[in-house]
Design goal:
By secondary structure, the protein is α/β, with parallel strands linked by helices. It has 21 helices and 15 strands.
């Protein structure tokens, strides 16, 4: 059965990739912008912020009702011209952290395209952006694509994909998606649509960079780990705040978790009657099903991360990295200086109190019998705020969480053993955080720094985790740094080093720190005490290769 599903998917892919001839038709003028013929039908864009934009283009057939948990299928071609002027709805999700917004729209598999208005003498490089949101939230519509399109002179695409119980829970047995990771399959179908159609928008189908942040970065990693399915669909990868080697659930473990969700939802055990379980789950409205998933997760931050050992994600990530059994394309691997301080901020806003007295208790809860060693290496300093110290400690390493320094750097190191990798760190501690990555009130009361997702305003102006896209403008020094970041991304998308003096990680072992007024290489492995973390938690790291300067020479 699995082979039949996989064969059907490959057949659908072949049909879609065979269809781009209609997408090569010359674009027509329009009072608003331009009408472009795609393999799915003509779409009409509009000019905004100095670029030509196309919003809400469906790339897949509906996935609601009886099609819930179905394998994604190509959209049925439409007749007439599709006015692509409004974003498609975000995929179903609950509001989170007092900041993000709820959605109930199941038929959400759409994409958006932005490109410069001027004609180019040659096809432009393409950036395909996968949004973050812990695999349970976020949407393509939260990201303004015009800055990267205009300033990087590129065609930029953003996509929606199914989330949470709909996209990253093991699907019920009596569905066509059973045994697959449907959120990743959605991304793959969108990638095939882009490959087949992007030339009509002036993009180069042979120069596509797949990029994402947080859950989007982890998604890029997962697409790298399935070369049989993704070879030729992209040619470079940008990973922002995601450790490619993070241990993940296997398919049996994911199916056991899905059984917990079904029980929380009040549905029968599929071991007894798979069809009844699927019918019950399909009849539940989205927010009730999401709530059942939340109860089953019991606070686990990455309860809906992808699972491995299945046709979508066949390999354990750390094994694939160490063996080199992945898609070997150049990688730009980035992270932020203070990733986890944002989660400490959420806790403080939720009523947690972190004092000199409670700091050791928090460390013991996180690191168990290793806490004494950790406290010796990360003591509170006189006058230092405990919340900052805890956030920096958690940022350097937390077992099992893939947005911590040492695992992010390690992922880049393992990739660099087989392909070209550039590593960098966003270190602008003045970048907007409150009202962007965390609610404005209450004030967390400590220096948040360059937290997880703080770099997104440099690339997508106004990013605020909301449809308003109303983050404040960057300060002059931060804007100058943002310009350098966009320049680096633009160079990488064209197959060049991100900067003339930037050597790849495999040759230098250096991470480039992007700080206002001071862009420079650093030894991030040493700064973040990764030898210590590797010695204490070897199962999270690959091989036995040392990261010391001596051994890198």
């Amino acid at each position: 059965m699995i082979w039949k599903c996989w064969s059907a998917l490959l057949t659908a892919a072949a049909l879609l990739l065979a269809a781009p001839l209609t997408a090569q038709s010359a674009p027509q003028s329009s009072p608003l912008g331009e009408i472009i013929a795609t393999a799915s039908g003509p779409v009409e864009g509009f000019i905004r912020n100095g670029v030509l934009e196309f919003r809400g283009i469906p790339y897949a057939a509906p996935v609601s009702g009886d099609a819930r948990w179905s394998m994604p299928q190509p959209v049925r071609p439409w007749t007439g011209t599709l006015p692509a002027m409004h974003f498609g709805g975000a995929c179903p999700q609950a509001a989170r952290y007092g900041l993000t917004e709820r959605s109930d729209e199941e038929n959400c598999l759409t994409l958006n395209i932005s490109r410069p208005t001027a004609k180019a003498p040659a096809p432009r490089p393409v950036l395909l952006w996968i949004h973050g949101g812990a695999f349970v939230g976020g949407a393509a519509s939260l990201y303004r694509l015009d800055r990267l399109a205009r300033d990087a002179d590129a065609v930029v695409v953003s996509i929606n994909y199914r989330l949470g119980v709909f996209g990253f829970m093991a699907p019920p047995a009596a569905t066509s998606g059973a045994g697959h990771v449907l959120g990743l399959e959605d991304q793959r179908l969108a990638m095939r649509w882009v490959k087949a159609n992007i030339a009509a928008f002036g993009g180069d189908p042979d120069n596509i960079t797949l990029a994402g942040e947080s859950a989007g970065a982890a998604s890029v990693c997962m697409q790298l780990m399935a070369p049989e399915a993704t070879r030729g669909l992209f040619h470079r990868a940008i990973i922002q705040s995601g450790a490619c080697g993070t241990p993940l659930r296997t398919l049996p473990e994911a199916e056991a978790f899905a059984a917990k969700v079904a029980k929380e939802a009040g549905c029968p055990d599929q071991a007894n009657d798979p069809a009844a379980t699927a019918a019950c789950l399909k009849a539940i409205e989205p927010q009730a099903l999401i709530a059942a998933g939340t109860r089953a997760a019991s606070g686990e931050l990455l309860a809906f991360a992808p699972f491995t050992g299945n046709p979508t994600a066949p390999r354990a990530t750390l094994d694939a990295l160490q063996s080199g059994d992945f898609l070997r394309v150049p990688v730009l691997n980035g992270f932020t200086r203070d990733e986890m301080r944002v989660y400490v901020g959420y806790d403080v806003q939720g009523g947690a109190t972190i004092t000199p007295e409670t700091y050791p208790l928090a460390v013991r809860k996180l690191y168990g019998d290793k806490a004494a060693k950790v406290l010796a290496l990360y003591p509170l300093k006189p006058g230092e705020r405990p919340a900052e110290t805890l956030g920096s400690l958690m940022t350097d390493f937390m077992p099992g969480l893939g947005i911590t320094h040492c695992l992010e750097i390690e992922g880049g190191r393992l990739l660099a053993a087989h392909t070209r990798v550039y590593q960098w760190e966003f270190a602008d501690r003045t970048a907007p955080v409150r009202g962007v990555g965390i609610p404005i009130l209450p004030d967390p009361g400590f220096n948040m720094g360059a937290v997880h997702s703080a770099e997104l305003n440099s690339l997508f102006p106004g990013f605020s985790n909301t449809a308003a896209m109303n983050a404040p403008d960057l300060a002059p020094a931060s804007q100058a740094l943002a310009d350098r970041i966009v320049t680096a991304w633009a160079a990488f998308m064209r197959g060049k080093a991100p900067a003339a003096d930037w050597r790849d990680y495999g040759a230098s072992g250096a991470v480039m720190r992007f700080e206002p007024g001071a862009i420079r290489p650093i030894d991030a492995w040493a700064e973040y005490k990764c030898d210590f973390w590797r010695s204490e938690y070897p199962a999270f790291f690959g091989g036995a290769a040392s990261q010391t300067k001596k051994d890198r020479k």
